[in-house]
């Protein structure tokens, strides 16, 4: 714009700075501010506020603090409540609570009166820093300044009391809050339910939840999950399930966290079948299991391995697009001495597209995974797909092992395709790959039988005698 001889004023610069800050490019915004200084264009508090806020959000709080000091000392600008609240919040996020408290004193000395947001930010930071006593002193100062605490302030204080094992004081504060006309929200109840549960008083937590609902407050999924988790830890799975379905009935859609809590509870109670049922419900709702869910199920299966349970879980992971996890389960099943049945192979083969998409997700299947897929195709009699996958495997530089080759040879022999079988047998000989006993047994049986194609049988005999 300048090059085209358009004159930019402070409003134009302000709009551009605002856009850069919203795009999380505080450095560019700061560069533009310096250009304004150089060109002696008027700079106001709002411009500083935007850049300070952007720097804090980008976790560059020291730079924001330096800019704040420059604003006061060099520009002689007077910061307002927005400036202070932004910087205090940024400082608290990086655990510089004392510096933030210093800013609070500075603003009050300058007769800039903090609002409920600033006080609540500081109360929360002190409570998280396990300085509940100082947080209550700040509450007194807040009330003396004519600022009434809100539900966020009370929630922070209750959380701090619960963290420091002062449950009775937290309950008293809860009652005071209601007396003062401040209505608790879902976070308030979750904090208390969690603290009461941790004391082993699950029934009392349940009663608090029911009182909450009776008062018209709506517990969220976190509140329910806390209670479900505690019942699970106590081994009261029927109660946990009742709360879970009560949550669903109230219109809350369970998330991966709440499902995982139930699955974990069932697995610890050695009720793996129930865990699998919950897993299947979760999968039908198109929720992808996370690492915690996966590890929980693995742990449960180790204690009571069962082919049908493995099959259900493998199917669930495939349905969710988690093919690599499904294959880990498949291999674990083999390590447990369980032989895959045709149903499981159907599941694995049905996930061919998922298998091919692994490389797009930076997940490279190895020899074992390829061999499992090839074996599945062979067992279903789909030798063309098995051959194509074998070719793909070699093209990607993944070396087939003795299991891969023997599976291919055995499958072609069973299909009476001696020509293809011999091709693989010759390659095995070139690469010094051992023949499995089952492969030799099939060849011997074919030579002993009255094989209709004498030429093919002779070629097979010659190869075998050469050995």
TrEMBL record:
<protein>
    <recommendedName>
        <fullName>Pentacotripeptide-repeat region of PRORP domain-containing protein</fullName>
    </recommendedName>
</protein>
<dbReference type="Pfam" id="PF13041">
    <property type="entry name" value="PPR_2"/>
</dbReference>
<feature type="repeat" description="PPR">
    <location>
        <begin position="150"/>
        <end position="184"/>
    </location>
</feature>
<feature type="repeat" description="PPR">
    <location>
        <begin position="366"/>
        <end position="400"/>
    </location>
</feature>
<feature type="repeat" description="PPR">
    <location>
        <begin position="306"/>
        <end position="340"/>
    </location>
</feature>
<feature type="repeat" description="PPR">
    <location>
        <begin position="80"/>
        <end position="114"/>
    </location>
</feature>
<keyword id="KW-0677">Repeat</keyword>
<feature type="repeat" description="PPR">
    <location>
        <begin position="44"/>
        <end position="78"/>
    </location>
</feature>
<feature type="repeat" description="PPR">
    <location>
        <begin position="220"/>
        <end position="254"/>
    </location>
</feature>
<feature type="repeat" description="PPR">
    <location>
        <begin position="115"/>
        <end position="149"/>
    </location>
</feature>
<feature type="repeat" description="PPR">
    <location>
        <begin position="401"/>
        <end position="435"/>
    </location>
</feature>
<feature type="repeat" description="PPR">
    <location>
        <begin position="9"/>
        <end position="43"/>
    </location>
</feature>
<dbReference type="Pfam" id="PF12854">
    <property type="entry name" value="PPR_1"/>
</dbReference>
<feature type="repeat" description="PPR">
    <location>
        <begin position="185"/>
        <end position="219"/>
    </location>
</feature>
<feature type="repeat" description="PPR">
    <location>
        <begin position="255"/>
        <end position="289"/>
    </location>
</feature>
<dbReference type="Pfam" id="PF01535">
    <property type="entry name" value="PPR"/>
</dbReference>
<dbReference type="InterPro" id="IPR002885">
    <property type="entry name" value="PPR_rpt"/>
</dbReference>
<comment type="similarity">
    <text>Belongs to the PPR family. P subfamily.</text>
</comment>
<dbReference type="InterPro" id="IPR011990">
    <property type="entry name" value="TPR-like_helical_dom_sf"/>
</dbReference>
């Amino acid at each position: 714009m300048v090059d085209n001889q358009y004159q930019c004023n402070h409003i134009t610069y302000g709009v551009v700075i605002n856009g850069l800050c919203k795009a999380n490019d505080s450095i560019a915004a700061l560069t533009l501010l310096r250009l304004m200084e150089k060109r002696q264009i008027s700079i106001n508090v709002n411009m500083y506020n935007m850049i300070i806020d952007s720097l804090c959000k980008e976790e560059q709080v020291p730079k924001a603090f330096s800019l704040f000091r420059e604003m006061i000392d060099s520009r002689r600008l007077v910061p307002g409540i927005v400036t202070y609240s932004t910087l205090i919040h940024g400082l608290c996020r990086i655990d510089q609570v004392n510096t933030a408290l210093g800013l609070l004193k500075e603003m009050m000395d300058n007769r800039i009166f903090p609002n409920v947001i600033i006080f609540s930010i500081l109360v929360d930071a002190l409570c998280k820093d396990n300085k509940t006593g100082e947080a209550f002193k700040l509450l007194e100062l807040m009330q003396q300044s004519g600022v009434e605490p809100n539900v966020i302030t009370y929630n922070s204080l209750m959380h701090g009391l619960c963290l420091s094992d002062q449950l009775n004081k937290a309950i008293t504060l809860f009652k005071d809050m209601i007396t003062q006309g401040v209505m608790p929200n879902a976070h308030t109840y979750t904090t208390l339910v969690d603290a009461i549960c941790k004391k082993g008083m699950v029934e009392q937590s349940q009663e608090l939840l029911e009182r909450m609902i009776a008062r018209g407050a709506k517990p969220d999924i976190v509140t329910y999950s806390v209670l479900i988790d505690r019942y699970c830890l106590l081994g009261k799975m029927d109660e946990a399930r009742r709360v879970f379905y009560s949550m669903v009935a109230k219109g809350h859609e369970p998330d991966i966290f709440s499902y995982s809590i139930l699955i974990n509870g069932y697995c610890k109670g050695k009720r793996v079948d129930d865990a699998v049922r919950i897993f299947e419900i979760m999968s039908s709702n198109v929720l992808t299991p996370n690492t915690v869910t996966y590890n929980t199920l693995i742990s449960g299966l180790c204690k009571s391995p069962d082919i049908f349970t493995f099959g259900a879980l493998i199917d669930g992971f495939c349905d969710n697009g988690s093919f690599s996890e499904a294959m880990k389960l498949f291999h674990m099943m083999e390590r447990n001495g369980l032989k895959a049945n045709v149903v499981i192979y159907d599941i694995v083969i049905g996930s061919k597209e998922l298998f091919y998409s692994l490389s797009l997700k930076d997940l490279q299947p190895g020899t074992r995974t390829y061999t499992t897929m090839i074996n599945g195709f062979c067992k279903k009699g789909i030798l063309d797909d098995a051959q194509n996958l074998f070719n793909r495997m070699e093209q990607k530089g993944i070396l087939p092992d003795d299991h891969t080759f023997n599976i291919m040879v055995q499958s072609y022999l069973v299909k009476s395709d001696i020509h293809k079988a011999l091709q693989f047998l010759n390659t095995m000989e070139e690469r010094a790959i051992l023949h499995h006993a089952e492969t030799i047994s099939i060849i011997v049986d074919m030579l002993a039988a009255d094989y209709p194609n004498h030429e093919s049988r002779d070629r097979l005999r010659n190869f075998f005698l050469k050995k």
